[in-house]
Amino acid sequence: MSFTEPPESPKLAPLDRRTLLKGGLLGAGLAGAPLAAQIPERQQGFTHGVASGEPGADRVLLWTRYAGGQETSLTWQVLTADANMRVVAEGPVAASPENDFCAKAWANGLEPGRWYHYRFVAPDGSMSDLGRTRTLPEGPTARWRMAVFSCSNIGFGWFNAYRHAAEANEFDCALHLGDYFYEYPQGSYPSQREFLDGRAPLDPASETVALAGYRARFAQYRSDGDLQRLHQLYPMIAGWDDHESTNDSWEGGAQNHQPETEGSWPVRKAAAMRAYREWMPVSDEPWAAYEVGDLATLFRLETRLTARSQQFDYNSLLRGMASPEEGVARLAAFRDGEYVDPSREVLGAAQQAWLAEGMKRSRRDGKIWQVLVQQVLLGKAASATSLTDNLPDGLPEYVLERVRASALASSAELPLNMDAWDGYPAARARLYEAALAADANLVSLAGDTHNAWAFDLAHGGEAVGVEFGGQSVTSPGFENFLPQVAPGDIANALVARNPELKWMDSSRRGYMAVELTPGRSTSEYRFLSSVREKGAGVVATHSISTLAGARRLDIG
Which of 280, 295, 470, 529 might form a disulfide with 512, Cβ 3.0–4.6 angstroms? Predict the structure, then answer.
């Protein structure tokens, strides 16, 4: 959960036919391909476009959905990305009601570092949209560019970030760091007052709990034309955060799961994971590595449902306190005891060992960058008490409770967000020690908070790496949580309070354009003018980078 969301929650536009592709892709067949139609479930046909993911040097995973009423055998085809459109690989795949008519197939035997087109063909000869995908390079690699997204709540607005990245046509792949959709019912988050007409949850209007609900929520989100176009143009590396199951999920439960009314957590978790793997171009592997030539290894981590320990909760720790002084004393005792419990996990032993060995192998193989594709902030961030000294009247009670708790926590040298790595200091230390042992050039990419961040990461006085935390696609940040405080004041106060935090933006939506080169890793934060107006574009950018080997941000 982002700390800008309420702590408790009660229980489509057609794709226009413009040419988006530039340069050598014009005339190659994709610009004139039929775009995704929104076909009612009762009709047979391709319903939600195409997608690709899990890129490797010689393979990629292809996805489509074909509603046929019964299992249907489709043919997938990979074609050269030139005017000849020659088929270079093909095979069968079934669209089955068992998998909600979603079809996924590995296309193997491809050439490294190449763009391809792909499509699916039905028994009656009808074809899916024509997609574009790319394999990972081998050997010397001068540059790799990624469009990085997180936190896409359809009720808050249009997916203009997806549209902009598709129209830019300048990336090698897309990354989605989680909260691809939100599970809440209509009128919850966003509230009935906040949601944009035509963007509220359609089916179910209730919270997603069972498999049918998760499938229906995916179907609504994947009917969005801008999201379809993004998937159509770039292979995506994606992993879930919490809202693909429910808020503040962990291995054994979630803040927003009530067993007495919503049944078994393992059953709900399994349904969420199943629907995600049906509807997304992802493998069944909970974590994975992607080798980008001699340039980088991308490590897709799973930080939610496999091994994460339950989050700490300040409200529980402070319940019944007689005075602020008592609260600080309680929190100080907690800070020196349970908070640093070494048994608390985020990754778990198996994933931690895999990552540690993977970073060592990456460096032995001469890769320059070791990039974490993960969900929640690693950087240390405590609340700035200066923000709480003169709060205006009229704030909601849940805001006041959280502000008071964060102020007391900051006084006790505890972090703002216990749902991030900040809530698991021993687990974070294990990750940092593994990175240092591997001599890694660590770059962490994170989402979840809805705001933009840039951190130096350190352990025991030693520089470990850097973190680029991305702003959300639509979900509101501090500007919604503390609207009475100027965004610049929020950012300045938090940067001044936190030594690792070098920059942040607390009020704007968008995405990150992350570029890796042999000498530098850069995040260009791209900010939209609006998410309430369809098609609103990027109106501001801010770039921050780190030099290879520096393990510190070059703020400039």
Answer: 470
Residue positions counted in the chain: 556
Rounded to a whole number, what is the distance in angstroms from the first to the last CA of the chain? 32
Quick check: helix, strand or coil at residue 311? Answer: coil
Q: How far is CA 68 from the centre of its chain?
A: 31
Which one, of 446, 448, 444, lies nearest residue 456 by Cα? Answer: 444
Q: Quote the distance between the C-alpha of residue 284 and its chain's center.
A: 17
Which H or E run includes 56?
Answer: none
Beta bridge partners of 76: 91, 120
- Token code pair at residue 419: 């749902």
pLDDT class of 390 with cuts at 50, 70, 90: low
C-beta neighbour count of 226 within 10 angstroms: 22
Q: How far apart are CA 323 and CA 320, in angstroms?
A: 9
Q: Residue 287's pLDDT is what?
A: 98
Closest CA to 179 of 448, 528, 469: 448
Contact 182, 243 (CB under 8 A): yes
Q: 71 phi and psi, to 5 degrees?
A: -60, 130
> What value, to the nearest 5°, has the Cα angle with vertex 99 and ends 43 and 134?
95
Q: Find out whether 478 and 487 touch, Cβ atoms under 8 Å.
A: yes
429 has a pLDDT exceeding 70: yes
pLDDT digit string, tens, across residues 399-421: 777 777 888 999 999 999 999 99
